[in-house]
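Last lecture ended with a question: if I hand you only a sequence, what can you say about the shape of the protein? Today we answer it with a concrete record. The protein is DUF3502 domain-containing protein. Below, first the input exactly as provided, then the predicted structure, then a couple of comments.
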Amino acid sequence: MGNIRKIAITACSLMLVFGLAACGSNNNSSSDNKANNSTGDTAANDSSSNTATNNANANASDSKIDTKDFETITYVMLGDKPKNGQLEKVMDKINVIMKDKINAELQLKWVEWADWQTKYNLLLASGEPIDLINIGTDWLDTWGNAQRGAFLPLNDLLEKYAPQTWSEIPPEDWDQSKYKNDIVLIPEDHYTQWVNHGLYYRGDWAKEFGITQPITDFATFGKYLQGIKDNKKDVIPFDSAGAATTFYTGFAASETDNIELPISTGYVNAFYGKSYDDRYTVDSPIFNDQFIDFAKMLKQWGDAGYWREDVLNYKGDTRAELRAGQTGVDAHHTQTFKNLRVQMDKDQPGSELQMFSYSDTRGNLISMPITHGGTSIGAHSKHPERALMAYELIRQDKEVYQLFNYGIQGVQYDIKDGVRVRPAGYDDAKDGFYSDFWGGRVDKFEIPSDQDWSGIGDIYKKYDAIKKPFPYGKFVFDKSAVDPEMTAISQVLGEQMPAILAGKAGDPEKAVAALRDKLKAAGYDKVKDEIQKQLDAFKASEQG
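The predicted structure:
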């Protein structure tokens, strides 16, 4: 997912993530950062806001809901906590409303991007009384955590404590939010976004190097990298922060027919569907013969100096370097691109930032699952009822929603002709705000932004013309029979894959063979057989 990044999304899907992952913020350093979608008619939302406010007041005054005791609700976000003081100012305003409507305050807790996967899962396994927490089934191991009992079943709570959200989400989307028979998450199913991943590059430099058509394959992208190496002194072609996991995602989408299964194996996902047409057959990009050729290409790129020699230990901010003209590549998904293009037009005038989406190669594009983003309640929450009421306010109250997503009008943004613009004198370092919320954004309260690139609609149309529907929305893998093997596989991938993707694993054929042997020893075939058994049962249920 991006620089880990999810998905995501989608998300990332992250996404990302994360979009990865995942990953609703203006935090450009996040690995599954997902920029706000620019749909939504603010003028048409007043009645929705009034309805939401009335519902919230009705909740708080309902004699069956006891809110006399003040409660503090925590919400776990993925991302680096803002340090300029604006988050606290926004939360003060939100908490005035929270206190008035549900006699509670909201406190954000942060799982920062450094080693985020480990920290996130350890937090859920710790037994800590988490209230609300961002989730993503395609990049945050949501189903694995559900199987481990990390989330509270919501079946008997939603209709009473989040009634508008309950009625807004259709039954088929609730079905995709269940582990076994329990609803364990609230999906972000009313927010339009694309979190397909790819590589960003400078269009002006590509033209300078003789690349006059949009880049749609890795071979041409290699020519772009070599052009930077040959012509741009003191510029590292791709100053990646650590091994670019995006290359693995890119290989699967652009060089194979594989489509990703919602089964997490840590650093990268080992198990995919064979193709969209053969989606009930388990396969893996790692065991595709072309993966060896891809590893050879990455070794050539590493040897050519397209990234740092010590790339595996480098911790810099690739996106900040791109904006400063110090590198020529970044990686994430379409939602990030639509904002980054505008930023680059200002920071590097004439750069004409472009995106090589991995789906451009062969049209291998699957729509994002509705559970790429969402929110769960921790199994040990002490305030699940009030937590749902707080979530309802974030998702259904227009004032709270726009504070939580955009900040304070007049400080973070103004509105001109129905579009969000930066106020006069705005300084991103001093005034910037983000909450990294991708747990329940809704199109109805979104405000279009002048920070969204005007050409993004054409890209959306291109994707819409080739996309295939996500086929695994109701497939939840039960890994209880192979849990030790799944853990071992994740460890192998985390140990072996980074060096391969960075071209730093020595002879590529030997490195890939060693990876495969270690995966086999860790129980790859046993896990594959178990997934296949469950996919066969899923296919039977889908086909009646």
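Comments.
1. Residues 1-63 have pLDDT under 50 and may be disordered.
2. The chain has two domains: 71-191+369-446, 197-366+472-542.
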